[in-house]
User: What shape does this take?
Amino acid sequence: MGLTHSHPQLFPGDIVEYPRNKYFSHFAVYYGERDGVPYVAHLTCRDSDSKLLLFGRALRSEVKLDPLALLGTKYKVSNMLDDSLSARDFYSAVKPDIDELIGRQLTFDILFHNSEHQATLLRYGVKKSQQIEKIYEHIQPAWKKLFKEKKL
Assistant: This one.
């Protein structure tokens, strides 16, 4: 998950990926500039009183609009589904959806509604998380074995 460009050119509606560790990244959607400051919209439970995640869930999460650099200085454009899905128009679809979601309480779920799901939902209209799909690829063989052995 190397960063070939630490500060690539961003266009409104681009998915911005902030690597957090070897396995996971945080995702946001580039919103554009306000008073010369670039902003992104992202799903977060940062200010929630349900600080983390009971069984991978935070019931009080929300989409926030934050300065791009607040989430990290290392990021890349990650429009990962452009080869298979059409991006929705930013000004007629994505921006109005972001504006409507700002401050609205949502549930963060690591498996079913994380920041990557939210970013792809905004850009493409489809919830998808490739990092969770990679985890399933490793977990499913182990689960199959346990099911066959009737231990799960």
The two ends are 33 Å apart (CA to CA).
